[in-house]
Amino acid sequence: MNKARGVVTLYLLGAVLVPGALKAEVIDEVARLRAELEAVKKELAEAKAGSLPEAQLDVARFDGTWAGEISKDERNNCGAGEIKFVVRAGKVEGTRWKYGTPAPAKGVIEPNGSFEGYTNRAVFVGKFDGDTFSGYWPKNGCANQVATMKRIAP
Questions:
Q1: Does residue 89 share a domain with residue 19?
Q2: Fewer CB within 10 Å, N side or C side of the chain?
Q3: Can you give the pLDDT at residue 135?
Q4: Cα angle for residues 132, 133, 139 (degrees, 5° grid)
């Protein structure tokens, strides 16, 4: 394929063209993601078989995709936004959008539904209860903002 000098070699990896120089990095990342997926599959199989500790099974009841809104705080000039979490076995990863800009969100859920984590390095706490969530940022200038979410998918 490299007929002329200076032509970039591209590899087809899962229907994505990747420059030759990045091939090894992409392959390594795919392998890492596959290993992570296998670990999650194993954990879910163990949960179904009842071999996970009780506390871990307790937080599994919150598994799913959650989405909602962040209220506007006019007093502190904090705009409204959106928030979305994916919860698996008590671990939370997601995104918070304010002013159209995404920021990462991560945290953990305790068996009683209490949540502690962060969004864009700001401490974020809340409570999962059934199919609803309510949380806030206790240590930043937008402490009066409230995030509310509902489970939108298991």
A1: no
A2: C
A3: 96
A4: 170
Q: What gap in Å lies between CA 4 and CA 142, rounded to an integer?
A: 58
State the sign of the Cα–Cα–Cα–Cα dihedral 136, 84, 133, 99: positive
Mean pLDDT per 10-residue segment, the chain (154 residues)? 46 52 66 71 65 65 97 90 96 94 96 94 94 94 92 95
Q: How far apart are the first and last CA of the chain?
A: 46
Q: Where are the beta strands (DSSP E) in 22-153?
A: 64-70, 81-88, 91-98, 101-109, 114-119, 122-129, 132-136, 146-153
Model-wide pTM > 0.90: no
Give the count of domains, the chain.
Answer: 2
DSSP annotation of 154 = -
| One domain, residues 138 and 87 | yes
The residue among 69, 59, 44, 66 whose CA lies nearest residue 90 is 59
Q: Which two tokens stand for residue 10?
A: 């591209």
Tokens 């030759």 -> residue: 20
Rounded distance, CA 94 to CA 124, Å?
12
Contacts of residue 27, defined as CB under 8 A and 6 or more positions apart, other chains included, come to 13
